[in-house]
Amino acid sequence: MDSLILRTATRYLLPLLLMFSLFVLFRGHNEPGGGFVGGLLAASAIALYAIGFGVEDARRLVRFAPQQFIGVGLLTAVSSTLVSPLFTGRPFMTALWNEQILIPAIGKIGTPFFFDIGVYLTVLGVVLLIIFTLQEELIHEELVDQNATLAPHKKPKHPKPNH
Fold first, then answer.
1. What is the pTM of this model?
2. Full residue range of the structural domain in which residue 141 is found
3. How far apart are CA 29 and CA 149, in angstroms?
4. For the chain, what is the domain count?
5. 25 lies in a domain?
6. What are the pLDDT digits (tens) for 74-93?
7. Which of 56, 54, 55, 42 is nearest to 13 (CA)?
8. Distance in angstroms (rounded) separating the CA atoms of residues 136 and 122
């Protein structure tokens, strides 16, 4: 889509949506929010950018393939769930908190926070993969349609055999 209004609005909305997605991620282990909603917000910001500027520009903006986000996210989420049984002997997915370190605007740091980061990255990667694939397919279909209307109708070179 080639719209000056959309491109201008996207330049202002992209950083705001990404910051809000991080806010939702950071508060998610203490209050409503978290990795899933934050990942959806980040993906929607990048989808808006892809609509305004094109898929290739959006891929350059992201710098990593969506599959890399999915892999790192899954590794982070699963790793955070294994900390308790491996290091403390507690059951799988038992939350561990560091009571001594309080980070402003985030609060206590613990395994749920790292699980949320993993979910955030996984959701971001999956949604971007879907969005980029659909937009690239749409572009491909439009190019095929344009070529079909521009190319003259050609007769086959080889005549059909008579039986």
1. 0.82
2. 4-146
3. 55
4. 1
5. yes
6. 999 999 999 887 878 778 77
7. 42
8. 21
